[in-house]
Amino acid sequence: MKRFLGFVKKEFLHIFRDIRTLIIIFGIPVAQILIFGFAVSNDIKDAGVAVLDLSKDEITRKLTDKITSSGFFKKTEDLVNYSDIDLAFKKGKTKAVFIFEKDFGSRLLKEGKATMNVITDASEPNVATLVTNYSMAIAGDFNRELSRNSLNGIALVQPEVKMFYNPALKSHFMFVPGVITLILILICALMTSVTITREKEFGTMEVLLVSPLKPIQIILGKVTPYFLLSIINVVLILVMSWLVFGLPVKGSIVLLMLESMLYILMSLSLGILISTVSKTMQQAIFISLIGLMLPTILLSGFIYPIENMPVIYQYVSSIIPPKYFITIIKNIMIKGTGILFVWKETLVILGMTILFIFISVKKFKIRLQ
Question: Where are the domains of the chain?
Answer without folding.
Answer: 47-164, 172-368
